[in-house]
Amino acid sequence: MMNEHDLGIIRNAVFPYMDKPITCIGDSFTHGAAARPDIPSYVSRMAKYLGTTPRNTGIGGATIAKGEDDRDFIGDQIRDVKNQAVITIFGGTNDFAANRLIGTVKDPVDKVTTFCGALKYMITNLAKQNPQVKFLLITPAKSNHAEWRLYDDDGNLRKNQLGNTFVDYVNAVKAVGSYFAIPVLDIFNAGNYNPYLFPNLSLEGLHPNAAGHERLAKTIAFKINSL
Description:
34% helix
């Protein structure tokens, strides 16, 4: 029979962040209620897989890069995020739709008008506010929504007004993650969330329904527990 010490070792291995503070930053995928108020997002659903209830700062329609339109800037969510064990940043769909500049990993950390610069701004400032934190970047997911469709009728990747494809924003997340040696969860390429293949997981080809959020919760929580 296992003693309390052995059980504690197992508990810590299964739930390394039990009762520890975690914050999830993002857009409507993270917020959840922005799409359907009656469907809890993946964030609250992760509690049973993490042993702690993460804080959700997501805002529907928000973008990684700051623009001149009325969309919220995801970077504004970081101001009071302090002393966290884990912070996730999940976004990019709205940047594609809103024609945000991508930039490069060479962009300075104060250049928040580019996707790469804004990610660097968030990460560097969050690192100062959370000196012991572990980050997880999450790429945007595939979309079959009328306004955010991944492919055109001929099966080619659609481009926004800047000539960027959805994949360009996915690759930008991965490039910034590599720049900072931060793990990236590639939901786009390997998240088992694809409205083309599994329309039963989505409300309208973009936002997850209850089953979609539950699938994302398991996938993201598993990655967090491995950090």
